[in-house]
Amino acid sequence: MNLILQGQSVSRHLVEQLAALARPRSIAAIGEHAYRCQDVTYNDEVKSQIDLAAWSAKLDYAFVEPRASLSDFGLVAMDMDSTLITIECIDEIADMQGLKPQVAEITEAAMRGQIEFKESLTRRVALLAGLDASALQRVYDERLQLSPGAETMLKAVQAAGLKTLLVSGGFTFFTDRMKERLGLDYAHSNQLEIIDGKLTGRVIGDIVDGEEKKRTVERVCAELGISPEKAIVMGDGANDLKMMGIAGLSVAFRAKPIVRAQADVGLNFVGLDGILHLFSH
């Protein structure tokens, strides 16, 4: 196995100290702040030691197959809120109603897996009843930002021929715009009901929860004629775990502890483009 170590700022000396736990044959820089440690010792004890040391040093790590390539995959599936973008859209919409603390508290509990997602979304959307629908555009224009490294990552995976899917427990108002803006192939999310220019506090149709996210990845993979093992799936919250569980590579991005614990790779400090360093170029 190879060990990839990367961070927002990292010295070779620190990498050499940390990598020594896995006794690499050699260490090579693969970016300004990324290193590949080749032919390392890999077992549960070493992984546990690296995990603790890397977190303390504010470095991200991943044990990868030496010949892993982006071309081994056919799809990148991404959660939207707090993964592809930096905000939770529903929290920012609620801020327009003066209800951000109440909604954000429910959002946080849902992402940690403490509340079932369908219940949490129903409760949060109900609090938005009566809000002018123009608030959605204001959130998009004034508050929505891509996560660090998102565009670099997407350009690389698209250039490698992978298809892209944005699958979200958020809302079509935002996923449709992100799909067009970023040239994504697929998008699936919830549709807010709007009557006479006002949010009704309801969602149209079935709610996109963790199970529906998984089914969406399966549907898109079937359409592409590939196995879900050929999918890279990225997320941050408990409702992403089911789709991450069927992926060939699951990536927890700035994620809740329950998600970090189950993902193949955690990106806690670098941007989304950190996944590119996991593959040979």
Automatic annotation (TrEMBL):
EC id: 3.1.3.3
Annotated GO biological process: L-serine biosynthetic process
Active-site residues (renumbered): D79 (nucleophile), D81 (proton donor)
Pathway: Amino-acid biosynthesis; L-serine biosynthesis; L-serine from 3-phospho-D-glycerate: step 3/3
Entry keyword set: Amino-acid biosynthesis, Hydrolase, Magnesium, Metal-binding, Serine biosynthesis
CDD domains with a match to the protein in the record: HAD_PSP
EC category: hydrolase
Entry's Gene Ontology molecular function annotations: L-phosphoserine phosphatase activity; magnesium ion binding
Catalytic activity: O-phospho-D-serine + H2O = D-serine + phosphate; O-phospho-L-serine + H2O = L-serine + phosphate
Coiled coil: none
Keyword Magnesium on entry: yes
Cofactor: Mg(2+)
GO cellular component annotations of the record: cytoplasm
InterPro entries according to UniProt: HAD-like_SerB, HAD-like_sf, HAD_sf, PSP
Gene3D superfamilies according to UniProt: 3.30.70.2020, HAD superfamily/HAD-like, Phosphoserine phosphatase, domain 2
One Pfam family matching this protein: Hydrolase
PANTHER family, per database record: PHOSPHOSERINE PHOSPHATASE (PTHR43344:SF2)
Similarity remark: Belongs to the HAD-like hydrolase superfamily. SerB family.
The protein's name: Phosphoserine phosphatase
Organism per entry: Oxalicibacterium faecigallinarum
